[in-house]
Design brief:
Blueprint lengths: L3 E7 L8 E2 L2 E2 L13 H12 L3 E5 H5 L2 H11 L7 H8 L1 E5 L11 E4 L3 H10 L5 E4 L2 H9 L5 E6 L18 E8 L5 E7 L4
Parallel strand pairs: 1-7, 1-8, 4-5, 4-7, 5-6
Antiparallel strand pairs: 2-3, 8-10, 9-10
Helix pairs in contact: 1-4, 3-4
Length: 197
Amino acid sequence: MRKLTLQMQMSVDGSVAAERDGWQLWGFDWRGPWAWDAALKQRFNATLDRIDGLVLSRPMAEEGFIDHWTAAAAHHPDDRDFDFTRKILALDKIVISDKIEQPCWPRTRIAGGGLAREVNALKAQPGKGLICYGGVGFASALTAAGLVDEFEFYLNPAAAGAGRSLFPQDGLALSLLDSQAYECGMIVNRYRPRDRG
């Protein structure tokens, strides 16, 4: 059975979604304001070697996730730091949506049978593992439904002061699996829900 890992960026005060004056306080950007160091880039690339599928929310797909990384792969064809762009293109991508009938992206299929049903079916298939990318609403729904086997948070050296959490109001007990600090100021923490023992 495949594990589903929810990978998200987060502020030190626990926000996964916050903007100030239209500017996102952090985001996936290896150039700044906290440029990712070589070890962190290497870790991110290695993460994609442990999976064989990406689970995406409809907004993530429609707002350009696949198109963005397709363009990035074309702009960095021989850059080893950007190996992940080519890996993303080669992976099977599953968009969870009942609003899209046909995918317009390569190596992508639509799963529209309901969140829990579709994710459980994906996890039941043989393979290495799945990573989920999506906004806070999608991530919260996965978390509330108990579908996430591991959380991998890229903790940015920024305090949002406001924003949204992906956890339910009554919280969720977690067990720490791994924590690694990087020279650029980022910390990557991996957890599993404690009830998964």
